[in-house]
Amino acid sequence: MAEQPDALQPIFTKLAAARTRLIMERPFLGALVMHLPLKVGGDGCTTTGTDAQAFYFNPKFIENLSLAQTQFVLAHEAMHCAMGHPQRRNHRMKRRWDVACDHAVNLILIEEGLKPPLHGILADQNFMTLSAEEIYPLIPEDTPEESFDQHLFDNDNEQGASPDQDERQDDPEGGEAGGQGKEGQSEAEPQQGSGSQASQKPNELSPSEREELAEQWKNRLAAAAQAARQAGKLSRSMMRWVDGLLAPSLPWRALLARFFAINQRDDYSWRRPSRREGDALLPRLSSEGIEVVAAIDTSGSISDDELREFVTELDALKGQVRARVTLLACDNHVAGNAPWEFEPWDAMQLPADLEGGGGTDFRPVFEWVENENRSPDMLVYFTDAEGDFPGIPPNYPVIWLVKGKGRVPWGERVQLN
What we know:
Layout: H1 5-25, H2 27-33, E1 38-40, E2 48-50, E3 55-57, H3 59-63, H4 67-82, H5 85-88, H6 94-111, H7 132-135, E4 150-151, H8 163-170, H9 207-230, H10 236-246, H11 252-263, E5 266-269, E6 284-287, E7 290-297, H12 304-320, E8 323-330, E9 340-342, H13 363-371, E10 378-383, E11 398-402, E12 412-415
Parallel strand pairs: 1-3, 2-4, 7-8, 7-10, 10-11, 11-12
Antiparallel strand pairs: 2-3, 5-6, 8-9
């Protein structure tokens, strides 16, 4: 039997106090939390949950939390929404995705100094700075881990979802903590309903409504970050995370194409035109193409399929900007049968017999360029960035296409995965 509103009043007061403290101490998180109306969860809600439209909670769970821990769970659900987790799962197994999302959110909140509940929190320090997509493949398919809250973003009970979640989602009466309709609700007002009122099936949105909701959360994230930044209450770590999430995300192919276009040698030519073009001597746009050195890491950290994909992309780009490509392979030394030279009209392909498998050292590639007296317009290096770098950058642009989380000391870094 559902509790009466009078009995729930202390719980709503506690949640309101936690939200107020978040707004005062951490305005960025507080602003995000205010977009989630407070609703009592249904019988299947043992802790908290969200469908990106409301914050659902079990009164007994909230009752046993300190005020600081209540702040944490409020911020936890809001961060799922702000980070776009409802839209980013795609083909991934729900259980593993939920676990990955919890690791990502909790690590950020703990780094911010928030106090999590004592038990059931996923926050593996090995996943620090990784996104949910990067954590997901590191989670075993049969992982015993599970998120402490309910992610009511969808009701796809595909393989990998936990049995108790499946059972709750399929049960329309006592199932997941459900969402009310969007109409007639104020985002900032707590909704004091009974358990039965909040146990409707959540998130019954059309694809267009889902997209609209995702866009709303992106706008909320930007507005909250801007206000907190102006107030001087957005930490550097949170600022880096927000900027990374809001920055335009382009595939590495598009970024590489942009670098190629920027370095293309287009200039005006005053050479005399042919007689068919008339007697006037006018400037004309002339393109001479570019010289590119491409290096691939053969230490074993990059698969043959990934190397082949990189070479195929280079082949497509070099024709567009009339680039002449010199291909090198290197682990801790440049391959003995390198280089491989390709004119703009040549078809590039990965050499059949690549040497490699040793340690990773990037210095031999740059030493080779210097010893050969090359002056490339740009050098592109495909690697995991785990190795020894030259101490001084060269006097030509260097683009690092990085698989993984490795950092580079200089040059332009483009994330592959």
